[in-house]
């Protein structure tokens, strides 16, 4: 009885090369997350390793909005199951995907600080300086906000 060992058709790296792996680079390059990283990063000793990959977590929160993922639970599930999505968000093969609790703590830190308002103000000033908007009428559009409540019927 003869055993024939068949070679692989292609490796995992060849498969990754077939797909466009940098889907969000154009968007992520335009967003400066250094101020967010300064706000949420832990102050640790230089010799201690940082267990959470904060920049990848922040990028995955942006990608969550772009992909239309409604909850953090589904985001974590997608990061664990989709290798390309994980790489696009900045996680590597060796990085462990953060838990829902870690994402929740990150969101609480961001919400408790005033950093998003400062980033928004800086972006508006940059857009005015580059001539994209004139600055006469600026408003935040909240028309896409959907309520998750029960529809109440009014009886007469």
UniProtKB/TrEMBL annotation:
Domain named Transposase InsH N-terminal: residues: 23-106
Domain of life of the native organism: Bacteria
Protein name, per record: Transposase
């Amino acid at each position: 009885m003869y055993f024939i060992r068949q070679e692989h058709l292609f490796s995992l790296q060849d498969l990754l090369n077939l797909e466009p792996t940098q889907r969000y680079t154009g968007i992520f390059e335009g967003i400066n997350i250094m101020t967010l990283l300064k706000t949420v990063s832990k102050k640790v000793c230089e010799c201690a390793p940082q267990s959470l990959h904060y920049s990848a977590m922040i990028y995955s929160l942006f990608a969550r909005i772009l992909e239309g993922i409604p909850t953090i639970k589904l985001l974590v599930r997608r990061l664990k199951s989709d290798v390309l999505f994980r790489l696009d968000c900045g996680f590597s093969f060796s990085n462990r995907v953060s838990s829902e609790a870690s994402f929740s703590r990150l969101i609480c830190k961001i919400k408790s600080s005033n950093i998003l308002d400062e980033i928004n103000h800086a972006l508006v000033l940059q857009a005015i300086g580059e001539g994209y908007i004139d600055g006469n009428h600026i408003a935040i559009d909240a028309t896409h906000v959907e309520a998750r409540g029960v529809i109440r019927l009014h009886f007469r």
